[in-house]
Structures are given as structure tokens and as C-alpha cells.
Amino acid sequence: MQTTQNVNQWFKAAKVEDFPKNGGACVKYKDQQIAVFNFSRRGEWYACQNMCPHKKEMALARGMIGESENEPKVACPFHKKAFSLQSGENINGEEEAVTTYPVKVEDGYVYIGLS
Ligand code: FES
């Protein structure tokens, strides 16, 4: 679950305009790939691990974002497993949850909260 309480570092990921509206992009932090989503329709930002737990594909940043009962989610482009962008849980299957990260936008830059 994303919460800013445990954040001990805000990683400056990229400029706001580097992220497509209502879409995602992958950023690298050390050896981690993090999928960042500009959910502009909701006026919200989300981030989660880029690796889909299903077949370990680095793919979630290229997934389709949407909502299920007002919960923001991303569907993997490979086999359409969907993960909550809030809790990280697999909404339509039994896959393990993905790690989600808090996101903040300041002065035109997107930051990812790491703990
Ligand atoms: S690899 Fe993501 S749903 Fe299969």
C-alpha cells in the first residue's frame, strides 16, 4: 500500500511532460524498474514495480490504465492481469501483489517515494 509515512527518500524521476497523459512510462532507480502512471483523467499519479508477477515481464508501464469500482488499476499488456494502483493487489487473478510507491509532483517534476 502506498503511504508517504515510510518514505525516507523522494527520487526525482523525470519531468511531468515526460509521462503521457492517461498512460505510463518506466523509470529506473538503481537496478529497479518502476512504472509511473499519469492518470490525468483522475488528476492522480501512481507508481508500481514494472515487472508483472505473472510471467515476470517488464511490462506494466506499457499497460492500460482504468478503473474498477472507482479503484485505479493497470492491466498488463501481455495477458491482461490487472493490478490495483493503490494496494497493488491482483484484481482478476491469483498473482502476487505488485509493490506500489507514493508519487508527488513538485515544480514540474515527478518524485517517487522510496522507503
Ligand atoms: S506477463 Fe503480465 S499478465 Fe502475463
Q: What's this entry about, in short?
A:
0% of the residues lie in helices and 46% in strands. The chain is mainly beta and 115 residues long.
Describe it for me?
By secondary structure, the chain is mainly beta. It has one domain (9-114): Rieske Iron-sulfur Protein, CATH 2.102.10. The protein is built from no helices and 10 strands. It has strands at residues 9-15, 23-29, 32-39, 44-49, 64-68, 71-75, 82-84, 100-101, 103-106, 109-114. The strands form 3 sheets. A 4-stranded antiparallel sheet has the order 2-3-4-8, with no helix packed on it. A 3-stranded antiparallel sheet has the order 1-10-9, with no helix packed on it. The model has no long low-confidence stretch (mean pLDDT 96). Bound molecules: FE2/S2 (inorganic) cluster. Residues 52, 54-55, 57, 59, 76, 78-79, 81 line the site of FE2/S2 (inorganic) cluster. FE2/S2 (inorganic) cluster binds at residues 52, 54-55, 57, 59, 76, 78-79, 81. One of its GO terms (molecular function) is metal ion binding. It comes from Gracilimonas mengyeensis. Keywords: 2Fe-2S, Heme, Iron, Iron-sulfur, Metal-binding, Nitrate assimilation, Oxidoreductase. Residues 11-112 form the Rieske domain. InterPro entries: NasD-like, Rieske-like_NirD, Rieske_2Fe-2S, Rieske_2Fe-2S_sf.
